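Subject line: Sequence and fold of a protein, written as structure tokens
Enclosed: The protein record, placed directly beneath this head.
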Amino acid sequence: MSQNPPNLRPDLAPAPKFDTARRDGQPTIGMVSLGCPKALVDSERILTRLRAEGYAISADYAGADAVIVNTCGFLDSAKAESLEAIGEALQENGKVLVTGCLGADPEYITGVHPKVLAVTGPHQYEQVLDAVHKAVPPAPDPFIDLLPATGVSLTPRHYSYLKISEGCNHACKFCIIPDMRGKLASRPVHGVLREAEKLVDAGVRELLVISQDTSAYGLDRRYDTHPWKGGEVRSHITDLARELGRLGTPEDLWVRLHYVYPYPHVRELIPLMADTSNALLPYLDIPFQHGHPDVLKRMARPAASAKVLDEIAAWRKDCPEIVLRSTFIVGYPGETEAEFQYLLDWMDEAQLERVGCFQYENVDGARSNALPDHVPAEVKQERWDRFMEKAQAISEAKLQAKVGRVMDVIVDEIDEEGATCRTKADAPEIDGNLFIDEGFEGLEVGQIVSVEVDEAGEYDLWGKLV
């Protein structure tokens, strides 16, 4: 067991876990999945299709007939990481196919690695399959290669990401995601709910709802309605959250919302979160990015920042248990010391429970690159240190206040030292943990149990079973 410090790259998904079982002579594809949870879902869909065609899946370069690298293009550092992973795959295996966000610019990849067999962009599943077929022809055994209805999952069996839309309609100056993944394209609500129901039936205990902009879900569909369980439901985040919450109770299912912009209609979600009879957790992951209105204006952020603190206060009044997670950017072009100090003061007032932070980086193709007054690297680092010191102090105080409380936790991992769990306030990998180091022998991964908190750190809790 290890404590969970703040992730320096909160855009990263949990490390994939692969099923490496294979039969003799079965064609095998390796997968390197980089980037955010949305990319991890893309990897799951690709591998589900490949498994259905008789391929085995491996995380080992040496054991694979070819390797797919699902890339990230969120930041220049992420691009460099993707290029490094492609180079490593070429060196270790030789047959490499590239997909994902970085694949939206194939010349960028082939200019560095001309020996890759194919390059495809994000969610181009058919093109990926065609490239795999060409590199490693399928050889299915219909009597052996039977795929479970739930498909291939790259996360532990007790939680799963549920992607409800692709793309984004915003034009934030620091971001090129809309250029890579396109405009908002929402899935029909009944399709999302069917997938969620199948996951729950297969034993998933936590659904993590993801998209580029979860609160805009259904806008492109004009919030069309679809039949569901004898009635009709809109393709709208409020309707979707309500129906997902009805798939279970907090004792057997958790539903967690990520990437929610603070639009006015988000307040409609708060009563659902305050209702302890449904599975929707009192948790909102909102990418505020900054607190100063002038910085947000230079970022071209879509939310009215002046009202955000009032919204937070209203949410907490209606749902005192709500937990807010967010990410911020320090050192954005033109950020003055006064604007940064405003952000620290904003943090004092907002009192966010879970916080991640990026230092601003230029990204090839982003409009923010052309802004004047870029902040020197040493100033960005100094501000990041001060910001994280503030966030850590808030986190430590919030966690200390939980000592003595009885809380429900979900068990993620068990080893000889104890059980690593999460509270309702903690998403996998990016938030904190709760550790149980006594009397854990009878626990099982995925179980939801009650604990009494008896110790708190900067980011994590310790407790004993009730």
Remarks:
- Confidence is low (pLDDT under 50) at residues 143-149.
- The CA atoms of residues 247 and 418 lie 31 Å apart.
- The longest strand covers residues 406-415.
- Residues 377-400 form the longest helix (24 residues).
